[in-house]
Amino acid sequence: MFRLFNHYVPANAFAQVLFDSLLLFAGILVAATMQLSGGFALVEALAPSALVFAVIMIALNSALGLYRGGPTSSLYDTLARILLSLLASIPIAYAIFRILPWGVFDQQRGELTVVLLLGSILALRGFVVGAAGEPLLRRRILVIGTGNEAAAVDQSLRNQSTRALQVVGFYPAVNNDDVVVSNHRILAANASLLEAVRAHDVNEIIVAVRERRGGSMSLKQLLDCKLAGVKVLDLSSFYERVRGQVRIDALKASWLIYGDGFRQGWLRSTIKRTFDLVVGTVMLVLALPVMALTAIAIAVESGLPIFYTQERVGRGGRVFHVIKFRSMRTDAEKDGKPRWASARDDRVTRVGRIIRKTRIDELPQLLNVIRGEMSLVGPRPERPYFVDQLARDIPFFAVRHSVKPGLTGWAQVRYQYGSTVDDAIQKLQYDLYYVKNHTLFLDVLILAETVRVVLTGEGAH
């Protein structure tokens, strides 16, 4: 993996995206030259529009999950991924094709050819990714430690959709007698760490132990490996890179203070606010017909009110009133005691189940976005009652309030529905990653993934 605009991107997926973008770009130019005679001058004139079209379409499908499959993907998963990509891409492809300047290239004759080419590439890539064998690029990882932390690192890598990260073994740490991993995967400690790295052709080292008196590993040995070109990561950095999380159990206040990220400068805030205003207004206008039908359905089934407002905690701990379509009975909390919502909550109406699954109930929050109380992307806003409870039980929970809460967020697209303190901890780890690394690039990626989540029903709340 490598960092792109502060976000970690799998190298193999990036290589596939780059290859498909170039393939589509070249295909458009070939299709144009077959229809017209103009030689290099024609190619030069069409190249900018062809490149923009190719990059936008392949990037869109990357965000929609086309490149997230792995060797264990079933035929159903592969077909679902391809169908989603085609359904989302074809209408957008037609729209973008008509907007871009093509000069003498006949759009009506060319758009069908280009769209068919796009569909063929997406279908081919969907099957290739779904039935992928060995990755294009492989990183060999040595884990220092043999205890629970080392086993958790190994399990995290086993859960990844790509096999590009391979654990070659576990190197015993100093003063660490716990052995949880398989004995046959533990490397002999009679050789130095650098010798073990060279013998097993290791690219990266993960230090997967808790700090103990006397140290977990000689700093000199780790420095020797780093100077030899081997990347060395601690647990916090590992989980941030591989899982898109800032793990609470591997986190220290000093890492938050001295580490990179968690910057909230005026330029970043201005760009984010401008993006929220422009995109939020456009989304509200486009969503008005759906919102009108939703209002009618709620009124017919369970009467008024159609909307409900509720106190939520925003940036800096300030309380605001969130606006949503009412999805529960009017007497959902008649005793006045706040409750976690659950996946199969019996307080939810029939219309409420539909609008929750499709997230239509969240659309009125676009007004909160335009008013500046929320952002399009950010941590989910919680009720003050639960914030007080979670802040007592979970370390660093208040860090998520350093940015505006969002209509959607990194936790919402990465973690399934949850309604317990343990679920809140898991979501906080994703929220901390977002707070640390948020950029316009990550916001756009999350918005695109939200479309995928809504269309596939993943993580429906």
From TrEMBL:
The keyword Membrane applies. It is a multi-pass membrane protein. Coiled coil: none annotated. Keywords: Membrane, Transferase, Transmembrane, Transmembrane helix. The chain crosses the membrane at residues 12-34, 46-67, 79-100, 112-132, 277-300. InterPro entries: Bact_transf (IPR003362), EPS_sugar_tfrase (IPR017475), Sugar_tfrase_EpsB_2 (IPR017464). Gene3D superfamilies: NAD(P)-binding Rossmann-like Domain (3.40.50.720). It is found in: Membrane. It holds the Pfam family Bac_transf. Residues 272-455 form the Bacterial sugar transferase domain. Signal peptide: none annotated. The keyword Membrane applies. Belongs to the bacterial sugar transferase family. This is TIGR03013 family PEP-CTERM/XrtA system glycosyltransferase.
